[in-house]
């Protein structure tokens, strides 16, 4: 059975109105407006391991990243903090392994909870994937895991 032009118009209006799904990639929740913040450099003790953590706003993507490195950072200008080890540290795996993702996300969440990063004491919003997990990925060029976040802009109105 063929659909006429009127039927296609009704289907298109339903999709635009939100009554249907358009084909294509899964949509994500709208991004919260992000606000700039000063960079922060930490030396994090996590159980028996230590990590270099850099938090910065990245203009190109208009959000923040919490970068976690296993080594290669400079100690100068870093605040040392201890983060409770809530996730096991993978053994026998390279730092680039996805086995490190839960550990890195745990460090990022704890740093966000305890450190003053955003203005007025507001906490960063961790960016999430469509499945609700925190967005994190390994950047081989930097040998670092990055967790995406944002300082929410103040609500006005």
Largest sheet, in brief, is:
8 strands, mixed
Tell me what portion of residues adopts beta-strand conformation: 25-35%
Low-confidence segments, given as residue ranges, are: 7-30
Which whole number gives the mean pLDDT?
82
Which class do the helix and strand fractions yield?
Answer: alpha+beta
User: Rough shape?
Assistant: globular
Tell me the series of helices and strands, N- to C-terminal: HEEEEEHEEE
Topology readout:
Layout: H1 5-16, E1 34-35, E2 40-46, E3 49-58, E4 63-69, E5 79-83, H2 101-114, E6 125-126, E7 136-139, E8 144-152
Parallel strand pairs: 2-5
Antiparallel strand pairs: 1-8, 2-3, 3-4, 4-8, 6-8, 7-8
Protein described:
The chain has 157 residues and is α+β, with helices and mostly antiparallel strands. The chain contains two helices and eight strands. Strands 1, 2, 3, 4, 5, 6, 7 and 8 form an eight-stranded mixed β-sheet that branches. The longest helix has 14 residues, at 101-114. The model is unreliable at 7-30 (pLDDT under 50).
Features:
157 residues; alpha+beta; 8-stranded mixed β-sheet; globular
TL;DR?
The protein is α+β, with helices and mostly antiparallel strands and 157 residues long. The protein has helices spanning 5-16, 101-114, and strands spanning 34-35, 40-46, 49-58, 63-69, 79-83, 125-126, 136-139, 144-152.
